[in-house]
Request: fold
Amino acid sequence: MTKEKILYQGAEAIICKTKYMDYEVVEKRRIKKSYRIKNIDDRLISFRTKEEAKLMMESRRYGVSVPIIYDVDLEKGIITMSYIKGDRIKDILNDLNEEERHRVCKKIGMSIAKFHNNDIIHGDITTSNMILSDDKIHFIDFGLGEKSTEIETKGVDLHVLMEAIESTHSKYSNCFNYVLEGYKEQLKQDPNLVIRKIEEIVKRGRYR
Reply:
């Protein structure tokens, strides 16, 4: 029997490290909700699993590093993907020297621009959902992702990261400026439209 290790257990899914055809993999297993009507719950789980897998495959096609998908079970709500050996950005960012922190954050911004160039919204861009491996930033957990052409949604996507940096890496809040540097360099549309939207979102939060 394959030995499993639970990496994370949340309200929506369990993330397990296991084996698949001799590969070291991660399984994301969506949790069934007993308070929902079974038919509706099954359809929701199937839909969300399919959409997440599609976003991941699309992101890879556009040059963003994400885990390789080996299998998708829509009935059970399971995505089987490659296990990325590396360090979460959350765990290492504060310990990098300034030059390396600048370089890593700029790479993050360039990857986010590749998402947004193709109207992919990750939905939960935090340093917990990025892994540095082989000098590449790998993005994980697309569970809140969607497709959108809206500037507002792209601004919200980046605002989530801005808040994550201010919260978890408060000594190095300039990291977000480094992210924007890479974002501006890679984004095909006018990046100032998105940056102004982030500023609007910040103001809204202040005046609630």
Summary: Residues 5-82 form a domain with the Phosphorylase Kinase; domain 1 fold (CATH 3.30.200.20). Strands lie at 5-9, 13-20, 23-30, 69-73, 78-82, 87-88, 120-121, 130-133, 136-139, 146-147. The mean pLDDT is 94. The chain has two domains: 5-82, 87-206.
